[in-house]
Design brief:
The chain has 258 residues and is of the alpha/beta class. The protein has one domain (17-257): 3-Layer(aba) Sandwich (Rossmann fold), CATH 3.40.50. Helices cover 40% and strands 24% of the residues. The protein is built from twelve helices and seven strands. It has helices spanning 17-23, 26-29, 32-38, 55-61, 74-81, 116-126, 144-154, 161-165, 172-181, 201-209, 211-214, 219-237, and strands spanning 45-49, 66-71, 87-89, 101-107, 127-138, 184-198, 244-257. A seven-stranded mixed β-sheet has the order 3-2-1-4-5-7-6, sandwiched between helices. Helix 7 (144-154) packs antiparallel against helix 12 (219-237). The chain starts with 16 loop residues before the first helix and ends with a strand. The model has no long low-confidence stretch (mean pLDDT 94). Bound molecules: benzoic acid. Benzoic acid is lined by residues 108, 111, 138, 142-143, 167, 209, 248.
C-alpha cells in the first residue's frame, strides 16, 4: 500500500521522494557554484541544512568532509538514509547543535522557512568560532512569472497563492541584514538569475513544487486551474519546440561566525 507523505504545516507542501527524483533532480545537479563556494575540505565537519533526499550531501561527503544532513521531512530523511548517509530529522527553526561544525551548507531549502530569525540563530549557534555558512536559496524575483500566474488563476477560487505557498525570496540587502542581526559577517551575497530547464515540463513542476497550493482545490477545479496556469505561462516560459524553462533567481552567500 502506498503511504501518503506528511504535509508540512507551514507551506502545506508534501514531499513525494519519487516525484522529487523525477522532477527536481536539477536542484542538486545545478548546485556546483554553491558547492565551489563552500569548498569542503577533507575532515571538516559540515551540516547540510535541508538535505532532502541526500543527493548533494552524498557529493559533499565524497570530498572527505564529515557530513550530517538534516531535514524536516521524514520521507526525505528515509530516502537519504538509503544512501547510507548520517542524517537526522530536525525542524530548521529548532536546530539542537552547539559550536560543533566548521561549516553549515544549505541549497534550495531556506526559502521554504518563514521564521528566518530562528533558523539563522540556530545556524550561528551550530558553528564553531570562525565557521562559515554558505548557502543558496530563491532570491528576490524568483519564479516571478509562475507566482504571478498562480496568483491570478487561483484568486477566483479564493486561494491566495502567495500567502499559501509562504515562500521567502529576499533581496541581498534584506538577507544581509538578517544575517548580520544574529551575528554573522557577510563575505559575499549575490542575486543570480538562473533560467532553469524543466525536463518534464510545467505540469510536473507545479504538481511537485506547488502541491501545497493546488491541494486547496477539489480535483476538477485543480485540473482546470493547472491548465489555465500553464496556458498563461506558455508564451513566456515555453519555446517553439515545447521546452519549458523556469525563471529561477538564486541568492547565494558566504557568511562567517567571528
Ligand atoms: C527554488 O528552488 O527556488 C524553488 C523551488 C521550488 C519552489 C519554489 C522555489
Amino acid at each position: 500500500m502506498d503511504t501518503i507523505p506528511p504535509r508540512d504545516t507551514t507551506t502545506g507542501q508534501t514531499w513525494n521522494t519519487e516525484a522529487y527524483a523525477a522532477n527536481g533532480r536539477f536542484v542538486a545537479t545545478l548546485a556546483s557554484s554553491v558547492v565551489a563556494l563552500l569548498a569542503p575540505q577533507p575532515g571538516e565537519h559540515i551540516l547540510d541544512l535541508g538535505c532532502g533526499d541526500g543527493a548533494l550531501t552524498e557529493q559533499l561527503a565524497a570530498t572527505g568532509a564529515v557530513l550530517l544532513g538534516v531535514d524536516a521531512s521524514s520521507t526525505m530523511i528515509s530516502a537519504a538514509r538509503q544512501r547510507n548517509l548520517n542524517v537526522e530529522q530536525h525542524d530548521a527553526t529548532a536546530l539542537p547543535f552547539h559550536q560543533q561544525f566548521d561549516a553549515v551548507f544549505s541549497n534550495a531549502a531556506l526559502h521554504w522557512i518563514t521564521n528566518q530569525q530562528a533558523v539563522l540563530t540556530g545556524v550561528h549557534r551550530a558553528l564553531r568560532s570562525g565557521g562559515r555558512f554558505v548557502a543558496e536559496m530563491g532570491g528576490q524575483g524568483n519564479i516571478a512569472a509562475i507566482r504571478t500566474a498562480l496568483q491570478a488563476v487561483l484568486a477566483p477560487y479564493h486561494v491566495d497563492a502567495e500567502a499559501t505557498a509562504a515562500s521567502f525570496f529576499p533581496s541581498p540587502a534584506t538577507y544581509r541584514h538578517l544575517l548580520e542581526s544574529v551575528g554573522f559577517t557577510v563575505q559575499s551575497i549575490d542575486l543570480i538569475p538562473r533560467p532553469t530547464p524543466l525536463p518534464n515540463g510545467m505540469d510536473s513542476w507545479l504538481n511537485t513544487f506547488r502541491n501545497g497550493v493546488l491541494d486547496h482545490l477539489n480535483p476538477a477545479a485543480r485540473a482546470t486551474a493547472l491548465a489555465a496556469t500553464i496556458a498563461l505561462l506558455k508564451p513566456v516560459l515555453c519555446d517553439a519546440d515545447g521546452n519549458w524553462t523556469a525563471d529561477y533567481v538564486r541568492l547565494r552567500f558566504h557568511a562567517t561566525r567571528s
